[in-house]
Specification:
Strand order of the largest sheet: 1-2-3-4
CATH topology: Trna Endonuclease, Chain: A, domain 1
Strand content: 15-25%
Order of helices and strands: HEHEEHEHH
Largest sheet: 4 strands, mixed
Helix content: 40-55%
Number of strands: 4
CATH architecture: 3-Layer(aba) Sandwich
Radius of gyration: 15 Å
Distance between the termini: 34 Å
Length: about 120
């Protein structure tokens, strides 16, 4: 795991596992990776969609979608399209460009409990 975005995602998942609000379910849909033409075609026929955000989170009947990028990362056209379509369907969607931005977004959405360490330092 040497890509910065993967490291961010791994840490965000650790936070989700340890301090999610009650009633939160999350998952990742791994769309990346090299595949042969036959395998790629089969996955696409079964509904795999390019550009799906890295983490999908369900809470209280609302879908939250988080695309994680490194500070120098950029959204692909397919990511922009999927994120727009998800917003049009009522999901809360964000692209974030650091671990801190990801955690603040998840706290703002009410997915993560506030970090008590940060509050006591303030």
């Amino acid at each position: 795991m040497n890509r910065p975005e993967q490291a961010i995602q791994k840490t965000v998942v650790q936070h989700l596992r340890s301090r999610s609000e009650p009633g939160v379910f999350f998952w990742s849909t791994p769309n990346e990776g090299k595949r042969g033409f036959v395998n790629a075609a089969a996955l696409k026929a079964m509904g795999m969609t390019a550009g799906v955000p890295d983490l999908l989170i369900l809470k209280g009947g609302t879908l939250y979608a988080l695309e994680l990028k490194s500070p120098s990362g950029r959204l692909t056209p397919s990511q922009r399209l999927v994120m727009d379509r998800m917003r049009d369907c009522g999901a809360f969607v964000a692209a974030v460009f650091s671990l801190d931005e990801a955690l603040v977004t998840l706290e703002f959405w009410g997915v993560l409990k506030r970090d008590a360490n940060k509050e006591s330092a303030a």
